[in-house]
Amino acid sequence: MLHLPGGRTPEPEDVVVGPLDLAARVDEALAVQAVAFGLTDEEVGVRRHIVLRHLKSPGARALGATTPSGRLVGFVYGMPNDRTHWWSTVVQPYLRAAGHEDWLDDSFVITELHVHPDYQNRGIGRRLITTITDGAAEPRSILSAIDTDSPARALYRSLGYGDLARPVLFPSAPSPYAVMGAPLPLRR
Ligand SMILES: CC(C)(COP(=O)(O)OP(=O)(O)OC[C@H]1O[C@@H](n2cnc3c(N)ncnc32)[C@H](O)[C@@H]1OP(=O)(O)O)[C@@H](O)C(=O)NCCC(=O)NCCS
User: Fold this and answer.
1) Where's the N-acetyltransferase domain (predicted)?
2) Which residue from 15, 124, 126 has its CB within 8 A of the most atoms of ligand 1, so it is best to mutate?
3) Residue 188 falls within a domain, yes or no?
4) Is there a domain that residue 1 lies in?
5) Helix, strand, coil distribution of the chain in percent, nearest 5
6) Which CATH number fits the domain that encloses residue 89?
7) Residue 11 has pLDDT above 80, yes or no
């Protein structure tokens, strides 16, 4: 936990949510993801390539949550869904079977959202996802989350995301996922 002068820990309002040059700060972002979500060093290396490739996609955008000292403590990134992307090809048959394949079009995908554990449960994740989707031209948003009763699932439900397909199995991922979708703007 970072301490401000006087031993004070940063208040939520001290943490600024704004545009993030994720390509330049990918290692800091993956360090947040590694501790928030749990990634091995090997997985970090793989994710690094994926993130840098994603950022070349049309419409890809990232936001960061930064402390007054400039430390990155959370980030979100996403892009308009592209049916040729790996994620979309994996979820497509599940959405199709559930009658929701149309959600793959005109949707803004939340690819990653992570807040450092020391800064969780202070509204930062909510600010990150509502701010990035407020800037989307698409009328809806989709994402996948591990299919369990997690803070992430509770946050997404409270913002209007509903289950579109579950369980969804990603090759090499041990846990089943749920694909969720919400109309934009997200519910406040
Ligand atoms: C999911 C995550 C990004 C949320 O970030 P956050 O800054 O902690 O979330 P917020 O403080 O904005 O909380 C918003 C909502 O999330 C839910 N939530 C947050 N922490 C929670 C907890 N410990 N238990 C249950 N619900 C929780 C609540 O619905 C909360 O709404 P409320 O404040 O009105 O009660 C964060 O928990 C995280 O990084 N988790 C690990 C990585 C991860 O799972 N990422 C998502 C991958 S799909």
Assistant:
1) 15-185
2) 126
3) no
4) no
5) 40, 25, 35
6) 3.40.630.30
7) no
Residue with tokens 């979100």: 76
Kindly report whether the global pTM for this prediction surpasses the value 0.90.
yes
Residue nearest atom 5 of ligand 1, based on CA coordinates: 125
Q: How confident is the model at residue 6 (pLDDT cuts 50, 70, 90)?
A: low
Q: Is the CB of 152 under 6 A from ligand 1?
A: yes
Residue 2 lies in a domain: no
The total number of structural domains that make up the chain: 1
- Tokens representing 33 are 């993801």
Query: What is the structure's pLDDT at 28?
Result: 98
- 128-149 pLDDT tens trace: 999 999 999 999 999 999 999 9
155 C-alpha to ligand 1 centroid (Å): 5
The predicted structure's pLDDT at residue 138: 98
**How far is the C-alpha of 185 from the C-alpha of 131, rounded, in Å?**
10
Residue range of the domain that includes 146: 11-183
56 Cα to the center of ligand 1, angstroms: 28
Residue 66 burial (CB < 10 Å; 0-12/13-18/19+)? buried
Asked whether residue 136 is domain-assigned, the answer is yes
pLDDT at position 79: 98
Q: Verify whether ligand 1 is closer than 6 Å to residue 116 (CB atom).
A: no
